[in-house]
User: What shape does this take?
Amino acid sequence: KATAAILCQHGAPVYFQWTKGHNRNVRNEGADILAGLGAMHEIEEAVHVDTDIDHEFDVIGARLSEIT
Assistant: This one.
């Protein structure tokens, strides 16, 4: 919901295209390896991600499906 709210606030059309993962794609496999290596590192400092949603952009159900 927080991501959808941020996209709504952006004001411009946003399009997503599903892309099949992996499928023996060398770059995707490399990204997977790097993500795994990164996941092994300890987090030294907490990162705060603001997920507060302005009421105007708090979309659910049918309204949410319209923007996806």
